[in-house]
Each structure stands twice: as structure tokens, then as C-alpha cells.
Automatic annotation (TrEMBL):
Phylogenetic classification of the source organism: Bacteria, Pseudomonadati, Pseudomonadota, Gammaproteobacteria, Pseudomonadales
PROSITE patterns named in the record: CHAD
Organism of origin: Ectopseudomonas oleovorans (strain CECT 5344) (Pseudomonas pseudoalcaligenes)
Domain CHAD: 1-250
Matching Gene3D superfamilies: CHAD domain
Pfam families reported for this sequence: CHAD
InterPro entries linked: CHAD_dom, CHAD_dom_sf
Superkingdom assignment: Bacteria
Protein name: CHAD domain-containing protein
Length: 256
């Protein structure tokens, strides 16, 4: 196999080791960063696999990571909300207590979704090597370059759309940025562009968080005391996001 194909294999194996470690930490219920680290590993796995879609064993593995990401998302959202309430000195308003969060960690650690993903990862090395032996990975570098270029053009078009949707832009920016981190040579985006993508993602993430919290404040009377603070922060985040998006206009390939 080529060095690049071996490199991809090695990265998947390293992420599997990290996922096993996160699973053990979640089951122990004492590590407040375990869920966050699990989701980072899942995101890195999906960023590695997304440009390889259509190749043997890739689609099932990428889908398995996506399923576990969706399962763990609500609990991570609650963690972020608790952190915000703690920052405001209002942690007593949190809609879930420590026992509920611990139960959530154990449920994810013992979930069928995580077990299924681990089985897929166990089979990955043999499937990947067999695909290489059959010549199915001969143009993998070209495939990655082409797909990353397509992602970048998609983002460029969305940025120039006068009716652009911040939710969609947030998703597109995350994909382009994480792909550039995963495949720097193939993405051809400079460090300066990646930094501007990171700033835009941060601003849009802040905006998205406050939008979610306001929706919860509308649904839960207990969060009412936070509403005015979050509304002001949302407006500030919108301005930051718009400025960060404007800074990206000249950074991406021609959208045509």
C-alpha cells in the first residue's frame, strides 16, 4: 500500500483507541470531559471518512459514527447549558441533575450504537487493505482533492447568497474547516484561511448556542431569568458572525 493509504489506516486505528478510552471514561462517570472527547473523536473520524464515501467499508463506518453522534448530541447540549448557567451563577436552574447526567454517560458507554461502531472499526483494517490490493484506492488522493474542492465551492456559493441561512453556513464551514485539518495537502487552504474559518465557526456556534438556549427558556419557565441576557448575547453573536463571514468572501475557490 502507498504511504498515504497506510496513513489513513493508521489514523482510523488511532481514533478507535481513543474511542475505547472515552467509552471507559464514560462508564466510570467521573470524567466531565469524556463525552466531549468522544464527540471530537467521532467528528475527526467522520471528517476522515467523508471524502472517501463510496469506497469499500467507508459508508457503513461513516454512518455508524453519525448515528452515535446523534445519540450523544442531546447530552452534550445539556453539558454546554450547565456550563453556561454555572458561568452566570445560576447552575441551580439546570434542568437535569448530576445523577441524570451520570446515567446518560453510562447509557452511551453501554449503547448498541457504540458497540456497533466498534465492530465496524474492528473490520476496517482488513477491508481497507483488501480494497488497496484490488486497486480500488489507486486514485484516492485525487478523489479527496476533488471532493474537498466541491465542498469549498459549495461554501463559496452559500456565502454569496443574499438570503444565506446561518444554520447551513455553520454546517458548511465546519465541514470545510475540519476537512482542511484532516487533509491539509489536499485542501490547499492556507493557515490564515483556516484561522478565519475557525473564527467564523466560533461566532456561528455562539449564535447557535444562544438560539437554542432562548428556545429552552421559552419552553421552561425556570430558565426565564436568563432570557434577557441570552437575547442580548444572541444579537452580539449575530454581528460577530456576519463580520466573520464577510472576512471569508475572498478565501474560497470560484463559486461558479
Amino acid at each position: 500500500m502507498s504511504d498515504f493509504i497506510e496513513h489513513c489506516l493508521g489514523r482510523v486505528l488511532a481514533l478507535q483507541v481513543r474511542l475505547y478510552a472515552c467509552q471507559a471514561r464514560l462508564a466510570d462517570c467521573t470524567d466531565t470531559e469524556a463525552l466531549h472527547d468522544l464527540r471530537i473523536a467521532l467528528r475527526q473520524l467522520r471528517s476522515l471518512l467523508r471524502p472517501l464515501r463510496g469506497l469499500p467499508a467507508v459508508d457503513a463506518l461513516e454512518q455508524g459514527a453519525a448515528v452515535l453522534g446523534r445519540l450523544s448530541g442531546p447530552l452534550r447540549d445539556r453539558e454546554v447549558l450547565v456550563a453556561e448557567l454555572t458561568r452566570l451563577g445560576l447552575v441551580h436552574l439546570a434542568p437535569a441533575d448530576e445523577a441524570q447526567r451520570a446515567a446518560g454517560y453510562v447509557a452511551i458507554a453501554s449503547s448498541g450504537e457504540l458497540a456497533d461502531l466498534m465492530l465496524l472499526l474492528d473490520g476496517w483494517p482488513a477491508n481497507w487493505r483488501e480494497a488497496a490490493r484490488q486497486g480500488q484506492l489507486n486514485d484516492v488522493d485525487k478523489r479527496i482533492r476533488r471532493r474537498l474542492r466541491r465542498q469549498q465551492r459549495q461554501l463559496a456559493r452559500a456565502l454569496r447568497d443574499p438570503a444565506h441561512d446561518r444554520h447551513r453556513l455553520r454546517l458548511l464551514i465546519k465541514r470545510v474547516r475540519y476537512a482542511a485539518e484532516t487533509y491539509p495537502a489536499q485542501s490547499r487552504l492556507s493557515k490564515a484561511v483556516q484561522l478565519r474559518l475557525k473564527r467564523a465557526q466560533s461566532a456561528l456556534g455562539d449564535w447557535h448556542d444562544h438560539l437554542q438556549w432562548l428556545a429552552q427558556a421559552d419552553a421552561l419557565a425556570s430558565l426565564g431569568p436568563c432570557r434577557a441576557i441570552w437575547l442580548q448575547a444572541l444579537l452580539t453573536a449575530e454581528g460577530r458572525a456576519d463580520d466573520a463571514l464577510l472576512a471569508l468572501y475572498g478565501d474560497l475557490p470560484n463559486a461558479g
